[in-house]
Every structure is written in structure tokens, then in C-alpha cells.
Write a structure and sequence with these properties.
Structural class of chain B: alpha/beta
Number of strands of chain B: 19
Shape of chain B: globular
Largest interface: A-B, 58 and 79 residues
Helix content of chain A: 25-40%
Largest sheet of chain A: 7 strands, mixed
Strand content of chain A: 5-15%
Distance between the termini of chain B: 52 Å
Largest sheet of chain B: 5 strands, parallel
Radius of gyration of chain B: 21 Å
Helix content of chain B: 25-40%
Shape of chain A: globular
Oligomer: heterodimer
Number of helices of chain A: 8
Strand content of chain B: 15-25%
Structural class of chain A: alpha/beta
Number of helices of chain B: 15
Order of helices and strands of chain A: EHHEHEHEHEEEHHH
């Protein structure tokens, strides 16, 4: 996994609540057996005017000029600013894969759906929860300021605004540790083989029907 | 000290190790695998040279991509075919049991788990699918995971997780005739919203829940994820144990007795404390119909499409306006004046035998309305299909002009050939009415099986209580 340490990135605002993972990456693209290449189909139904199918050359497709990510001022954005309950619905990890493949490294929202939030950390994508009023303010500043950038420091757990003021955010210790170092958490779990074996021995005695 | 919740008991029984910050290594008893969210996980194992920790705890089935029409010729779409063949190959390579496409036991992963006795009370059950919450109906701790976690469970039999808060949603009283578990689920979502359960494990309780069959409880727990709760669950009772008894993978003999003794403890203690409590009265719940693009956009069947000017805040007003535009609906339209183009009865929410019986009871002796282009019934599994055919339900549907299909996820998410065309409106027994969910530009209204069947006959939504 690519580590996440610090990011000074352009912000793109996606001003709608309850953005679901079907919208982030529609189902027809889930037929892929790979982990990469989902970026061109990120937000496919909002981003293009035609119906997307796997295997198309997306550079030749008609863009929806009204969709925020198609506006020239947001090209190259690495931070997505979003509303409540971002990533709700299906558990598809293709959603963070698509966001990552497109170029996003962080998402800021007042709240995230649980499974999506969890999936982000497995892919070097940092989801940041900030209070709704703060997110409102960031939306207003992003709309008002072309080239609006935020400076995210995971070690310090801060988001620094262009005026130099810093906002603190919370993140679980273990997730932070894995993301900062880019650790493979399977490797970390396998360091606890003895504990897993001990649990199994105990559980086998209590509940033998689970070990047939 | 307060007593324990059902969730506390299930959690504690599976803790392998706990870190200071609460990050817990949780042991997983059952891992259900399907073709869409597993290929990258198996590839990860291969690249790292890892093997499944306990391959016998996993069971695989192709369900999302499979055709629901004749299967003799295989899967026409080469991309879908490759994904199903990849599952076959991965299961063979890693020694995982699979119910293949033409096995009579094949079906939607959340239907076959309980049906085969692979899902048992007290288990931790995971699957790379958000509707894994379904299995909580058995007093199990069941939740959806991403593909990285699928790989993690395969490799270690564990997950790193943090305990959620506990919420109890109580429904007391007796549900009226024609009011089903689906209506209870939609009414709850309408009440607390699609993020109302985020961060919680939800226990459904109360006399109306105890009154539900296991099929009904599965429908309810299935939709726990639609309030944002990763897990939904119902306490074990006699119905649970009767359902499990004699299933192919259920314990037998002495082990059965031992298991039942533990299962009988799987309920919240009388003095257990919850972080949040919600209560509804069964008598207040009537058949529900969604009108928008989120399951929380729901009204009673005798209601009207709401006016965005009455939305509680500016963000919601904007959402409602956008939803009305997408759905092609005007504010104030009576729900029962909305005509449908297609009807879909199926999905992990509503494709079990009880669902098909409820739909058939409405359809019997009637004809699909001419304006309805397609009414399809997709059983949840090959065994549900066989049972329905033994009961003659297939004839009831076919005689009424419905299509009787092969089992799979089908038009719940339209990964196979079953889908809505742009602008088409569907009465659907599935779980999500998101934009494009059933096909790009498709318009989904979520309802119970009986309500969907009635809409197919009438050509528009009707109140099944008076139909």
C-alpha cells in the first residue's frame, strides 16, 4: 500500500449528501478482476453523457460539462470535499480503488459510511471527518477561491487552510500507523499467529461444531 | 454492572486479541465468497504466497453475474463469464467449496447461507457484500467487508475491527394484514434515515419482531445496512432453532445439543444497556413505497410524493429536488397514481419461499396489466425455485403473464442482462433505489413482494390491503 504522510492538494467540491458507491463506480465496471484502471469510470453516470460500458476508450466519450470534476479549475484535484454519509451502500472496494486511480488521496466529509471508511484505509486513501459547519465553510471557500488547496498532515492530524489556520481531525491509532507506514495489515496480523492458535484451541473445546 | 447485549455476547466470544485503542482481532467463523469482490483477494494471496488459514470455513457461489434465463449455453457476456470462471479457478486452486452455477444449491449468497445451515446462531459471518447483515437474523454477528478484508480473512481467519455502539430498534404490537417485514424495514429507514445507524450494531426486538418468521427477520436484517448499520441482529428463539435443525451443514447429535445450549443464551440480558433506542408501534406501519433515490425517501402507500419545500433543511431540499427530477415525478402526486413499466420480485431482501408465496397469493387468477412490459420473478436459490415449483407457484406466475427465472441477484443491481432501460420505472422488492442501480437512468420504487405483485396486476401502485 502507498503510505500517506502529508499532502498539499487541490480541492474539488462534490456538493451532495448520501453519495453511494453505485454512483462512485457503477456495477458494470465491477466485472473486472483487477484492482487498477477504475479511474476513468469514477462517477461514470454523472461524468459522461453516454452510457458507460467496460472496455471503452473514455477519452473519446462526451463529458457532462455540468459535473464538477469536468470543470477545468478542478483538474488535478487530490482532495475531494463531500457531504454527509459519503460512500453509503454497497461494500465494493472498487469505490476507493476508483477514487485513488483518478488521483484522489484524501476525502473530507462530515460523515462516512462505515464499510467505505474502512476500505479507504486499506488503499492509502485518507477519509477525514470534520464538523458539518467546518465542511460548509470549506465548501464556501473552495467555490470562492480558484486553486484552493489544503495541507493535510496525517502525523499531526491537521488540515491547514490557506490562511494558515489548522483544523484537527481524529483517526484511530492503528489505522494511522498502517497508513503512515504503508503496512500490509495481513502481515501484522500474522505476527499474532500464536494468539490465533490459542483462541482456536480454546474455542474448539467450547464450540466443537464450529471446527468440523 | 449492567447486563450484556446480544452484540456484547457475540463480540466477546470472538475476541482473539485487543489493543489499547480498542482495535480488536476478531475471529471469523464463516466466510461467504462470491465472484465480484473476491478475484483481487485471491490474486493478493497468490502474489504474497499465502494460503487460506481454514479453507473449510469459506464457501463460494457465483450470484451477481449469472444469467436468469436458460443456462445451458453458459454466460453470453465474456466479461461476466471470465469473472465466474475466475471464481471457479480460485476455488479449485485454494481448496474452497463452491456451489457452481448449475448446482441446484446455487443462489444468492445470503439466501443459500441460511438455507444450507452454513449460517448458524452465534457465528461471526462475513462476506464481501454489504447485505451480509442478513445473517444476523439468526443471532449471528454478520457484516459486509471490502476486498482487502476478504483477503485478510482468507489469510488469517481474523479481521481487525473496532466495536460499534449498540442500538435497539423495538417494534411492539401486531402487524396488520398485508404489512410485511419489508414495510417494517422501510418504515424504520424512513424514521431514522440512511445514516441513522452509522457506527451502530442494531438489534431488532419487540413482539412484532418475535412474531416474524426467520424469512421476515432476514428481510429486516438485510436492510440494516440501509440505515448505515453494518450489522443487524435478532435474538435466538425457538423459531431460530427450528429453522436451523436438520439443515445440511448444521451440527448433529451431541454437538447439536451442545450448540443449542449455547444458542439459547444469545439474547440481550433484561438489564442490558444500549447506546441508542428507537421504538415503533406495529399498528402505525402500513405498506411502504419509496419515491426517490435513497431508501429513506419513502412514504406510506396512501401518501403522496413530498414537496421539497417541506424538506427539513437546505441540503435535503436539494436532494429531494434532484431525486424528483431523476425519478420524473411531480411533488404532490398520489403514490397510487404512479404507473410502472417493470416489476422485479427477487434479491437477497425478498426472494425466499415466503416472499414468493405472498406474491403468488396476490397474483393468483389475475393477469399482468398490459402497460407492464415485464414482470419477473427470480427465486433466491435453486432450492427455493424447486420448492416453489412443487407448490405450483411458478404456474401461478406464468399464467398471469410473469416470467419465472433462474436464481441470482439479477435486476437488484443489474450486473447480468436483467436491467432497466433509461427512464423505465420499476416496482422492485430489492433494497436500493439509488440512481442507476437497476440500469443507467432506471427509476426504482422499493416495495414488498405483495405490493410489487399488486402493482404488476394493476399497472400502478395500489394498497395491497384493499386489493
Amino acid at each position: 500500500m502507498t503510505p500517506f504522510t502529508r499532502l498539499l492538494g487541490l480541492v474539488a467540491p462534490l456538493d451532495r449528501a448520501n453519495v453511494d458507491t453505485d454512483a462512485i463506480i457503477p456495477k458494470q465496471f465491477l466485472k473486472s478482476i483487477k484492482r487498477s484502471g477504475f479511474g476513468p469510470n469514477l462517477f461514470d453516470e454523472w461524468r459522461y453523457l453516454d452510457v458507460g460500458e467496460p472496455g471503452q476508450d473514455c477519452s473519446a466519450r462526451p463529458l457532462n460539462p455540468d459535473f464538477v470534476l469536468n470543470q477545468p479549475r478542478y483538474q488535478g484535484a487530490q482532495i475531494l470535499l463531500a457531504r454527509d454519509n459519503f460512500g453509503c451502500g454497497s461494500s465494493r472496494e472498487h469505490a476507493p480503488w476508483a477514487l485513488q486511480d483518478y488521483g484522489f488521496r484524501a476525502i473530507i466529509a462530515p460523515s462516512f459510511a462505515d464499510i467505505f471508511y474502512n476500505n479507504c484505509f486499506k488503499n492509502g486513501l485518507l477519509p477525514i471527518v470534520l464538523p458539518a459547519e467546518t465542511v460548509d465553510r470549506l465548501f464556501a471557500e473552495t467555490f470562492a477561491t480558484p486553486g484552493y488547496r489544503l495541507d493535510i498532515d496525517l502525523a499531526q492530524q491537521t488540515v491547514t487552510l490557506p490562511d494558515g489556520s489548522a483544523l484537527a481531525f481524529a483517526v484511530d491509532e492503528f489505522r494511522k500507523y498502517c497508513l503512515l507506514s504503508g503496512f500490509d495489515d495481513i502481515g501484522l496480523t500474522l505476527q499474532k499467529v500464536d494468539k490465533i492458535r490459542a483462541y482456536e484451541a480454546r474455542r474448539r473445546a467450547e464450540a466443537p461444531w464450529l471446527f468440523v | 454492572m449492567a447486563g450484556l447485549t446480544l452484540y456484547d455476547k457475540l463480540w466477546q466470544a470472538h475476541v482473539v486479541d485487543e489493543a489499547k485503542d480498542g482495535a480488536t482481532l476478531l475471529y471469523i467463523d464463516r466466510h461467504l465468497v462470491h465472484e465480484v469482490t473476491s478475484p483481487q483477494a485471491f490474486e493478493g494471496l497468490r502474489l504474497a504466497g499465502r494460503k487460506p488459514w481454514r479453507a473449510k470455513t469459506a464457501i463460494a457461489v457465483p450470484d451477481h453475474n449469472v444469467p436468469t434465463t436458460r443456462r445451458a449455453a453458459g454466460i453470453a457476456d465474456p466479461v461476466s463469464r471470465l469473472q465466474v470462471e475466475t471464481l471457479d479457478r480460485n476455488c479449485a486452486d485454494f481448496g474452497i467449496e463452491e456451489f457452481k452455477m448449475n448446482d441446484v444449491r446455487q443462489g444468492i449468497v445470503h439466501v443459500i447461507g441460511p438455507e444450507e445451515g452454513l449460517t448458524l446462531p452465534g457465528m461471526t459471518v462475513v462476506c464481501g457484500d454489504s447485505h451480509t447483515s442478513t445473517h444476523g437474523a439468526f443471532g449471528a454477528l454478520a457484516f459486509g467487508i471490502g476486498t482487502s478484508e476478504v483477503e485478510h480473512v482468507l489469510a488469517t481467519q481474523c479481521l481487525v475491527a473496532k466495536k460499534s455502539k449498540a442500538m435497539r430498534i423495538s417494534v411492539e404490537g401486531v402487524l396488520g394484514l398485508g404489512v410485511t417485514a419489508k414495510d417494517v424495514a422501510l418504515a424504520i429507514i424512513g424514521r431514522i434515515g440512511t445514516a441513522g445507524g452509522t457506527g451502530y450494531a442494531v438489534e431488532f426486538a419487540g413482539s412484532a419482531i418475535r412474531g416474524l418468521s426467520l424469512e421476515g427477520r432476514m428481510t429486516l436484517c438485510n436492510m440494516a445496512i440501509e440505515v448505515g448499520a453494518r450489522a443487524g441482529m435478532v435474538a435466538v428463539d425457538d423459531k431460530t432453532i427450528d429453522y436451523v435443525r436438520g439443515r445440511p451443514y448444521a451440527p448433529q447429535g451431541v454437538q447439536w445439543e451442545q450448540a443449542v445450549a449455547w444458542w439459547r443464551t444469545l439474547h440481550s440480558d433484561a438489564d442490558a444497556r444500549f447506546d441508542a433506542e428507537v421504538s415503533l408501534r406495529a399498528e402505525d406501519i402500513v405498506p411502504q413505497v419509496t419515491w426517490g433515490t435513497s431508501p429513506e425517501m419513502v412514504v406510506m402507500v396512501d401518501g403522496r410524493v413530498p414537496d421539497p419545500s417541506s424538506a427539513p433543511n437546505a441540503v435535503k431540499r436539494q436532494d429531494w429536488e434532484r431525486a424528483l427530477q431523476y425519478m420524473g415525478l411531480a411533488a404532490g402526486t398520489p403514490i397510487q397514481e404512479i404507473a410502472v413499466d417493470k416489476v422485479f420480485i427477487g434479491s437477497c431482501t425478498n426472494s425466499r419461499i415466503e416472499d414468493l408465496r405472498a406474491a403468488a397469493a396476490v397474483v393468483k387468477g389475475r393477469r399482468k396489466a398490459d402497460g407492464v412490459k415485464l414482470a419477473m420473478v427470480v427465486p433466491g436459490s435453486g432450492l427455493v425455485k424447486r420448492q416453489a415449483e412443487q407448490e405450483g407457484l411458478d404456474r401461478v406466475f406464468v399464467d398471469a403473464g410473469f416470467e419465472w427465472r433462474e436464481p441470482g441477484c439479477s435486476m437488484c443491481l443489474a450486473m447480468n442482462a436483467d436491467r432497466l432501460e433509461p427512464g423505465e420505472r420499476c416496482a422492485s422488492t430489492s433494497n436500493r433505489n439509488f440512481e442507476g442501480r437497476q440500469g443507467a437512468g432506471g427509476r426504482t420504487h422499493l416495495v414488498s413482494p405483495a405490493m410489487a405483485a399488486a402493482a404488476a396486476i394493476a399497472g400502478h401502485f395500489v394498497d395491497v390491503r384493499h386489493f
